[in-house]
Design brief:
Blueprint lengths: L1 H20 L7 E4 L5 E4 L2 E9 L4 H14 L3 E3 L9 E9 L21 E10 L2 E11 L15 E2 L1 H4 E2 L4 E2 L3 H17 L12
Antiparallel strand pairs: 1-2, 2-3, 3-7, 4-5, 5-6, 6-7, 7-8, 9-10
């Protein structure tokens, strides 16, 4: 009888375990920094965060469209058809306001003085939206292109991963760096912290 019960419930336990690490593409998260939206997936560092709203999809899509249109350094990818479901673009030469953060104890803090380039996908549903920032590159110069990341960028993984790119660095200075990146990206796409908050 116990064996029968175990066989009945085993698939449920397996499903519960798998769903924690599943992303929309079915790929598994290799590593993450607790308390942040910074994850390592297939050797690539991503920022992936879900925001809630009291707006339905159409109004939320319009509001997010306005946000990115006034965001300095954000370029819509006009080669991809934009819909009410998603906005695809690129952060181009995004500069951190380093005075906003205490960067004295960060490892590799010098990268925050350099411009960031990244691919951004904003997925929109009723009452929520998800921001995914990937291909995060740091460089002095960048090509003004949405199809390709700037060729002279140094990818964020160079600074923040170890063991051949399979793990995020967990030393205190690197965790603080991840927390700083997380805060910057989270605030950048948070409608509640934007100039549009009154209508949100």
């Amino acid at each position: 009888m116990r064996t029968l019960l175990l066989l009945l419930f085993l698939p449920l336990f397996g499903f519960g375990q798998g769903s924690q690490n599943d992303l929309s593409s079915g790929q598994v998260i290799q590593d993450s920094i607790p308390g942040t939206s910074i994850i390592l997936k297939d050797g690539n560092i991503l920022f992936k965060k879900v925001y809630t709203s009291n707006l339905e999809k159409e109004a939320l899509s319009e509001k997010l469209g306005t946000l990115v249109s006034i965001m300095k350094g954000f370029k819509i990818n006009n080669e991809i058809y934009q819909t009410n479901d998603q906005i695809v673009g690129r952060l181009f030469r995004h500069k951190f306001n380093v005075n906003k953060y205490d960067i004295s104890s960060l490892s590799a803090s010098s990268i925050l003085y350099s411009p960031f380039n990244a691919v951004v996908i904003v997925q929109i549903k009723d009452f929520k939206y998800q921001v995914i920032i990937s291909n995060i590159g740091i460089g002095e110069d960048g090509a003004d292109s949405l199809k390709h990341r700037p060729t002279n960028d140094t990818m964020l993984e160079t600074f923040m991963t170890e063991k051949k790119g399979s793990k995020l660095k967990a030393r205190k200075g690197y965790v603080k760096l991840a927390q700083t990146l997380n805060q910057e990206f989270a605030d950048l796409f948070d409608l509640r912290k934007s100039n549009l908050a009154a209508d949100f």
